[in-house]
Amino acid sequence: MESNSDSTTENRRRVGLIYDERMCRHFTPDGEGHPENPNRILAIWNKLQSAGILQRCVVLSAKEAEDEYIAAVHTKNHIDLIKNISSKKFDSRRERIAAKYNSIYFNEGSSEAAYLAAGSVLEVAEKVAKGVLDSAFAIIRPPGHHAEENEPMGFCLHNNVAVATSLLLNKRELGINKILIVDWDVHHGNGTQKMFWNDPRVLFFSVHRYEFGRFYPAGDDGSHIKIGEGPGAGYNINVPWENGWCGDADYLAVWDHVLIPIAKDFSPDIVIISAGFDAAVGDPLGGCCVTPYGYSMMLKKLMKFAQGKIVMALEGGYNLASLANSVLACVEVLLEDKPLVGSSEADPFESTWRVIEAVREELSPFWPILKDELPRKLIIRQAPPIQISTSDSDVENDNGTHIVSEDLEKAIQDVVQPFSELRVGVNSNDDVNAIYAPWRSELSNTDVWYATFGSNMCKSRFLCYIEGGQVEGMRKPCAGSLDKSPPKEILWKTFSHRLFFGRDQTKTWGPGGVAFLHPESNSQDKAYLCLYRITLEQFNDVLVQENISSFDTSSPVFDLTDLDSAMKKRYISLEVLKRGWYHNVVYMGNENGIPILTMTCTLSDVESFKSGKFPLCAPAKEYASTLVGGLVGGKLLSEDEAMAYILEASTKPL
Ligand code: X5A
Ligand code: ZN
């Protein structure tokens, strides 16, 4: 298959491509649908074919990796597992073994696919290192970056990128001493991070959704304070997003203010990209919105290093159209025979600047260039509410916002031409909205009363959940809802429920207890609630923010069926938000035919509060005065009465 670069054109870049349909023989044993399925690489291959790319590249055939190379990063145990798992003698045990691991399936084709995936990256990496190829893209599966030394994980069997990285370092005649790994898959590259934790020859950079350790793979491995150890200290860089919906502007800001300055200093001999495309717009797992243009910009900026020696290895990416379009955009960048077109109009999130600042601070002892202050105007610009739409011309343009746009503009000027052809099939606005549809439009037609008993009784605080932002006393800003229309009506009501205060600190308010409402009513108690009439779509966004959980944009957390069962059973505990403290949606009756819903802890949480397993704790001053302010604003209570009500709720035994 070794083929056909157009040998007539002298200075065309030699770009290697590897694909092998044997990697399609790895699929779920029961034929169940799975995001990591054979169609992924098939879709990419077909796309490149129909775009006429294959003729312009050097197409190589895949080879299985040899055990000795895999052994550089995996245990003997692991190698034996992956080698044997597809053989007949494992037929009866295979599924039981897979179940022991986190997000792993095996079938008869898994072993061969895993060896081909690793072998393909080895093959192109060596050719790029030698200069036989300028760059390459390995279109492989299963992916690799979650696979650890002794454990397949997160759809990954062999850590393909790590295997290739080790080979390049170990074959001394290749003259590769320093390798930059850029992991832009939406998930943290936990496996790769661990494999080079102590190794200063490998600069591992991962940008990923993190959400304070709640996003897959949960835990704190992806935190920005994980910087490597021993001689490897400072050579592990994590950029952990606080929320979903990150897009081109967020990624490019991280490139400009973290990755590129460090990479300049590091000066790699070759760059390997763990190229997952699950941060792409429309991806069902990622919930981010990077466009093909965004990926091509990120890649373009990396081509300035190591004389453009770049090896890309596919990781995640689960929306077939976004995946194929993004890979196509990248291969066109590698081929370098077409100027980049497109633009990023949105600004980065406020949280993005916060994350960038934190990363720079953590790493500046190792990379002095990061000690330079970010331009002050970048830091202090107004926290924008969630900006998904790229045509947000009505977003208030304080001067801070202008500066950021100009800065990004400048950064990309040399390669940008106005308007996007690269967003083929990813016409920004339509596609961005497509992630939220159809459930959003469906649920936007139903109104509910969101009944609040805590700080949300204070209207300006509640509006943070709708418009985004931060009020007095809050430690961190809220993202806001996608639909930013204010509540249609506000009213106050009393209910025969017990208000109490539990937990001893929160991310939003800092130390002190926060309000909970006992999900069952009882005739002795009386609670004052402020009701906001919002759409069920907005209620979903509020629920997610209340539970500081990941924004999985592909489906609602509380849909019409859930509403129905809440109304029948009085409450419904939402499994997807189970780590949150307010995941129990309680139906409190209706007002003018519109259901009243509140969110609080579950009955079993109440038992835990009673038994002392969870702390009961009075509210801190600031939080309590927010509550009193809210109650007084509702005009049902005077200030003294409100204070007495809060005091009683925080002192009376449950
Ligand atoms: C390679 C990759 C994702 C695993 C998600 C498991 N893995 N829930 O994207
Ligand atoms: Zn991923």
UniProtKB/TrEMBL annotation:
It holds the Pfam family Hist_deacetyl. Keywords: Chromatin regulator, Hydrolase, Metal-binding, Nucleus, Repressor, Transcription, Transcription regulation, Zinc. One of its GO terms (biological process) is epigenetic regulation of gene expression. Residues 34-334 form the Histone deacetylase domain. It is an enzyme of class 3 (hydrolase). Its cofactor is Zn(2+). GO terms for cellular component: cytoplasm; histone deacetylase complex. Its EC number is 3.5.1.98. Belongs to the histone deacetylase family. HD type 2 subfamily. This is histone deacetylase.
